[in-house]
Amino acid sequence: MSDEDRMNREVIEQLKEMGQQLAAAKNAESETLYRLLLKTAEAVVVAIETRELGKMGHHQRVANLARAIGAELHLTREQIDGIGVAALIHDVGKISVPAEILGKPTRLTTAEMAQVKTHAGFGYDLLKDLIFPWPVARIVLEHHERMDGSGYPNGLTGERLLKESRILVVADVVDAISCPRSYRPARGIEVALYDIKGYRGIRYAPDVVDACLMLFNEKGYKLTDD
Question: What domains are defined for the chain?
Answer without folding.
Answer: 3-218 (1.10.3210.10)
